[in-house]
Amino acid sequence: MEYILDTANIADIKHCNEFYPLTGVTTNPSIIAKEKRDFWAIIKDIRDIIGPDKILFAQTVQKTADKIVEEAKLLNEKSGGNFGVKIPIDEEGLKATMALNKLGIKVLMTAIFTPAQALIAAKAGADYVAPYVNRLDNIIGDGTEVVAEIVEQFAIHGMTCKVLAASFKNAEQVHRCAAAGCQCVTVSADILKAVISHPMTDAAIAGFDKDWKGVYADKTILDF
Ligand code: E4P
What we know:
Blueprint: E1 2-6, H1 10-19, E2 22-26, H2 29-35, H3 39-50, E3 55-59, H4 65-78, E4 83-88, H5 91-103, E5 106-112, H6 115-124, E6 128-131, H7 133-138, H8 143-156, E7 162-165, H9 171-180, E8 184-187, H10 189-196, H11 199-216
Parallel strand pairs: 1-2, 1-8, 2-3, 3-4, 4-5, 5-6, 6-7, 7-8
Helix pairs in contact: 1-3, 4-5, 6-8, 8-9, 9-10
């Protein structure tokens, strides 16, 4: 299971990269625009924090296959390390994915809402597909069920493409995608925190502290 951070916020990336077992960072044009800063400065700052080995995803804003490929090559060159280009699925995106696959540039086909879209993206050579879980749930769909169907379909057809589930609003959605066998989730810092949080955990930690302090006061193991 890979945990990826879905933000371009530098403070969140610094924090989560230090405290969580992240394998990378995803961005999209909306996430980048929220920062209201120079695009390349954001990419450089993210890379400086995560280092060259963790994967950084940035999305093309081009609309035609040739331009998507051109932008993907530039992003790949200037990203400073392990990189994947995000391309929304449509005809031009599929054509660009086939070309980028031949060039060895990793593609994350994004804005996936059905297993049929995911399968054809994988066939075109996408290394990852990103189904949008919460956006499906919001329209009375079942986002985690779609993720489960994609995982199953890839297994049936022997696809090596990874399922990178995206668009989460709670930890239960993350759990259900992991249980369905998706290989990666991309989540906000808040969702990562929600994944590790539980009131019973807080109570257990408070109990350990109280019992220890009742006998040893402020002494720690280092003081024995
Ligand atoms: C990732 O690929 C998507 O861009 C992102 O997770 C969408 O999340 P949202 O539905 O919260 O905007």
